[in-house]
Amino acid sequence: MKIEWNRRYTTIAVYAILVLVFGVLFLYGVQNYREVKAWFSAALVTLRPFIFGFVIAYLLNPIYVFLDKKFLPWLTNNTINPPACRGLAIIVTYALTGGVLYLFSALVFPQIIISVSSIIGNLRSYADSLQQLLDMITHLVTVDGMPPEIVHAMEMSVENVINQIYDLVLNSVPHVLDYAMNFTSGLFSLIIGIIISIYMFMGKERFLAQSRKVMYALFNEENAKFMIDLASESNAIFGGFITGKIIDSLIIGILCFIGMWILKMPYVVLVSVIVGVTNVIPYFGPFIGAIPSIIIILTESPLQALIFAIFVLLLQQFDGNILGPMILGDTTGLSAFWVIFAILIFGKFLGFAGMFIGVPVFAVVYSVIKKFIAIKLQKKGLPSETAAYADDPSKL
Question: Does the pLDDT at position 1 exceed 50?
Answer without folding.
Answer: no
